[in-house]
Amino acid sequence: MADVIAFLIKHFYDLDACPAPSDLGQILEDIGFSDLEINQALMLLEVLANSPEVAETRYSSGAMRVYHHEELDALPHDVINLLYFLDRAEAINGEQREFVVHALAHLPAEDITVDMAKVLTLLVLWAHKSELPALIGAELMMALHGKAVMH
């Protein structure tokens, strides 16, 4: 699924620039992506397209996200640490973080990695037309190419 997301980010300015889901599915199939990858990506895009607008402002309430024991069992510590870092650096807001957590929770355990969390973060930021600090954005983009180093 990460390859499909990478393709979308590279070839479409934002979520609004994507073709209709049926057309996009056909484009992705013609390129050679698997049905599973296409369906997962289209499902995420549908959720993002139907979610309420995310406020552009970042919150700085000092509140801390407490993870449920089931989330702690499912999410590796390095993924939780990444999300904490992105939240504290104000690269993502609470709603965006929750989208990433929810999307990760629906993946097989072996696919829940820091790189996948970075790719999903890029997806939600791309869909919401959000800007982020250049150094953090560059690090997240490296996950699309398999060269991520920040953990």
TrEMBL record:
Pfam family, one: DUF494
Family: Belongs to the Smg family.
Protein name per its UniProtKB record: Protein Smg homolog
Encoding gene, per UniProt annotation: smg
